[in-house]
Give the backbone structure.
Amino acid sequence: MADLTPIENEVLNAMKEIGATSEEKKKTADDIAKKSNRPKSLVTNALVTLLNKGAVKRVAREKSAGYYIISPSA
């Protein structure tokens, strides 16, 4: 995906590094924020835009939502 902002790229790279590449391996925004060393609010905003662009998927859970990359080549 060429139309990503620098923070969106950082979030995707962090997700790849922690293995959030399938529904079984989904990670929370907290996990992604820790890995990317960015504030959770910034990561959450990037995740929302990545959701809208179709790069990641969100799975609602009891406590916090989980996110994973839809296509690892993104």
